[in-house]
Amino acid sequence: MFPHTRLRRLRRRKMIPLLAETHIGKDDLIAPLFFDETAVNPIPIISMPGQYRWPVSMAEEVIIMLNNAGIRAILLFGIPSVKDAEACGAYAPDGVIQQVIRAMKKACPEMAIITDLCACEYTDHGHCGYIGECLDGPGLLNDTSLEMMQLIAVSHADAGADIVAPSCMLDGMVSAIREALDDYGHHEVLIMSYSSKFASSLYGPFREAAGSGFSFGDRTGYQAPVSNRREAYRESELDAAEGADILMVKPAGWFGDIITDIKQIGLPVAAYQVSGEYSMIRAAAEKGWLEERQVAMESLLSLKRAGADLIITYFAEDVCRWLDE
Ligand code: PBG
Ligand code: ZN
């Protein structure tokens, strides 16, 4: 007790770095990237300043640039030239993402290539699988969509993906994907499941970036309700039982309790700082209302403190630069 105990002693300038309980390092970061099959030059994403839809022809250049910055892992999203009801572009052998993976693998074999495994960027209706008649009207069909996820997973692994990251929130997705990968000899490919993914409004800017807005309905029929902590835990617990290698919480910043909870399961945990979280910080910084670097680092450090082992963030490249300064 005071006056013997003085916590301010711990905050003497030279003590602070020595006593830091958590750190952000380049090894913690995963950089999301968008590749657009129709792009000829990089297309700036208006709602996510500093982010681009890259043309496939720049895959080598982009991966070498990130590797030089110190990034060790990337998360790939593809925007196909044609969308249809069956998401054929998602598992075409020469689809946008398959081309990008092959080019990157060749240019930079040391980079861990993670692919977002979903159908919503590839379907004309914008939902994450096959649509059909459900009890409450048209909706996402679960079990037939699992077969689509198996096709996509195998085609990503065939192209050279190191980790597939299913984001569709279908029941049974992890075991279905594990089975398909193993059947096709991809035992070494990891599954990073978007295991506790919420039906959040923070994905707004992403849907402009990926052109994956939906033509009807929303994702509340498959993504978890923001109000439910125990249900979110059960989602991750089930994915772990089905064989996921890495769990994920998404969005990240407002879901620190969920990160702390699912850390108990024992698997590595990734936190996805989503488009809306990024754009809020960027927009406030552009207005001069917040100091971008400080706020961004604080947001990421908070995720480490909550228990995240890995952080998916659109700030990844900036963080590498800041850490070098
Ligand atoms: C695809 C997917 C989405 C995001 C990642 N994968 C969109 C969605 O679920 O609607 C969002 C990422 C972000 O907002 O940064 N299912
Ligand atoms: Zn989706």
CATH fold field value: TIM Barrel
Structure annotation, total helices: 10
Helix content estimate: 25-40%
Mean pLDDT: 97
Order of helices and strands: EEEHEHEEEHEHEEHHEHEHHEH
Radius of gyration: 20 Å
Distance between the termini: 40 Å
User: How many domains make up the coordinates?
Assistant: 1
Q: How many beta-strand runs?
A: 13
Secondary structure category: alpha/beta
State the low-pLDDT regions, or none.
Answer: none
Ligands, deduplicated: ligand PBG, zinc ion
Strand content: 15-25%
CATH class: Alpha Beta
The main β sheet shows up as: 11 strands, mixed
What's the CATH superfamily, by name?
A: Aldolase class I
Structure description:
The protein has 325 residues and is α/β, with parallel strands linked by helices. It contains ten helices and 13 strands. It has a single domain, classed as TIM Barrel (Alpha-Beta Barrel). The strands form two sheets. Strands 1, 2, 3, 4, 5, 8, 9, 10, 11, 12 and 13 form an eleven-stranded mixed beta sheet that branches. It has a two-stranded antiparallel sheet with strand order 6-7. The two termini are 40 Å apart. The site of zinc ion has 5 residues, from loops. Ligand PBG binds next to loops.
